[in-house]
Amino acid sequence: MDKTHIDITKGLNIPIDGKPEQSITATKDVEFNALLGSDYHGLKPKLVVQEGDKVDKGSPLLVSKADESVVYTTPVSGKVAAINRGARRALVSVVIAADGKNSQVSFNSSKKSVDKITPAEVVAGLQKSGLWTALRTRPFSKVPHSSVKADAIFINAMANDSYAANPEIFFKEGAESFMQSFILGARYLAKIAGKQVFICCHPDSQLLQANYSEKNLSVASFSGKYPASLSGTHMHFLYPAGRNANNFWINYQDVTAIGKFFSEGEIMHQRLFGLGGPSVAKPQLLLSSLGANIRELTQGELKGDNNRLISGGIMNGRACTDETDSFCGRYHLQLAALDQGNQREFMGWLSWGLNKFSNQAIYLSSINPSKLFNLNTSTNGSERAMLPMSTYEKVMPMNLLPTQLLRSLLVGDIEMAEKLGCLELDEEDLSLCSFVCSGKYEYGEALRHNLERIEKENWDI
After folding, report:
1. Percentage of the chain with pLDDT > 90?
2. Cα(281)–Cα(337) distance, rounded to whole angstroms?
3. E strand or H helix at 253, and its extent?
4. Phi then psi for 174, rounded to 5 degrees?
5. For position 60, what pLDDT does the model report?
6. Alpha carbons 326 and 309: distance in angstroms, whole number
7. Which strands sit side by side in the sheet containing 78-85, from one edge to the other?
């Protein structure tokens, strides 16, 4: 089994307060869970349930009109409490009122040894269980069509985001069972990888010492600044995605769930979340269920009432706007709470900046590099011109031309954007560029718009 180490020197660790202690302090059961439409780019859903229907864990909620063999399932048993739609009847969420019984659809027929199972059986099992939706493609970051084959599969077992749980805590909590399930899950995924499966982890991870057997499975360790933990960074250095390279990516907790499904016939709904932020009274790691209601998870945990709840990391998460979408995202393992930052500061531009952070070291606070800040959601200004000041180059670890790429995304030049490497990227890969941008642009939104155009106008699946 090959082992590689890569140190990321470019990037930025956001010095924000509210980081959780790396120990599990609570298990929280919630009344409501949900499947969110916004988690799945380009999904045109066909619902197979109605409000009031009773469902078991693993029951189908919807299928994609473009590929009905891929099933989107419920993570808990209970009753369909609400089907929420937004503008133009776009699906916002399918909300399940949990009954606490965790009764499950029978998947015993899917239990099969990793040494005897065929690639077709792995794909079929993942699709009918709903675990196929844990995979995303690169390019485009969409749930793979059932006919699409992966050249390489990337398993992300890292966390150097501000509030993420260390994966080692997750494996320790489950004793040997979670670790063994993870190894099994990786081996099952190796069955459907065209060329290689990469497990990406920290240099001190116990995953480096595990025995995986498969020849097409290798382990790579990454260290350094954020975004060392992002799958886009891993792919760039190990097997870049593009027109001639279709990759899948998945997180370590979903891989563990895959191992449990094939070995025990069980749908693992439990997830380990990191809860943090300057507005959290006691940042912590907590166990809950997939798609859990964030307002229930954070009840009694916040300072004040003028907070923005975020599913996902502060750099790449999704703001919870109302009760219809305040649920943990399918791919999110962090929750954050920040002050809304909607109070104007009188003559703030004249401030010494003792309590302000800037990557350009323009504030006096830069003399204390270890200081943590109570950052909020304010952009500290409105949109303005994009300035080429080598700002983006300092935080972009990939061997790309970020200033030129970002400008092509803003003007919608999809041909130039593709030449400059946009097919390698997901919104999270440009989050630091948005953070340090003096022009206040959201480059993730611009990237998604360009990717949709490329796929629609100039892409053959």
Report:
1. 80
2. 10
3. helix 252-264
4. -90, 10
5. 97
6. 8
7. 32-36, 91-98, 78-85, 54-55
Angle between helices 402-411 and 443-457 in degrees, nearest 10: 70
Closest CA to 62 of 87, 93, 31: 93
Q: Which of 374, 307, 399 is nearest to 6 (CA)?
A: 399
Helices (H), 48-195: 119-129, 167-173, 175-190
Give the CA dihedral 80, 82, 84, 89, nearest 10 degrees.
Answer: 70
101 is written with which tokens? 């019984």
CATH code, 3-29+112-264: 3.40.50
Provide the pLDDT confidence category of residue 302 given band limits of 50, 70 and 90: very high
What is the distance between the alpha carbons of residues 273 and 266, in angstroms, rounded to a whole number? 21
H/E element, 236: helix 231-238
Distances (CA, A) of 228 to 7, 213, 311, 435: 8, 27, 20, 16
Q: Is the pLDDT of residue 362 over 90?
A: no
Q: Where are the domains of the chain?
A: 3-29+112-264, 387-457
Q: Which of 131-140, 160-169, 172-181, 256-265 has the highest mean pLDDT?
A: 131-140
Q: What are the CA-CA distances from residue 69 to residues 61, 78, 127, 130, 423 (Å)? A: 13, 24, 7, 10, 26
Q: Which residues, listed in sequence order, are joined to residue 272 by a DSSP beta bridge? A: 287
Mean pLDDT across the stretch 172-178? 75
- Count CB neighbours of 13 within 10 A: 13
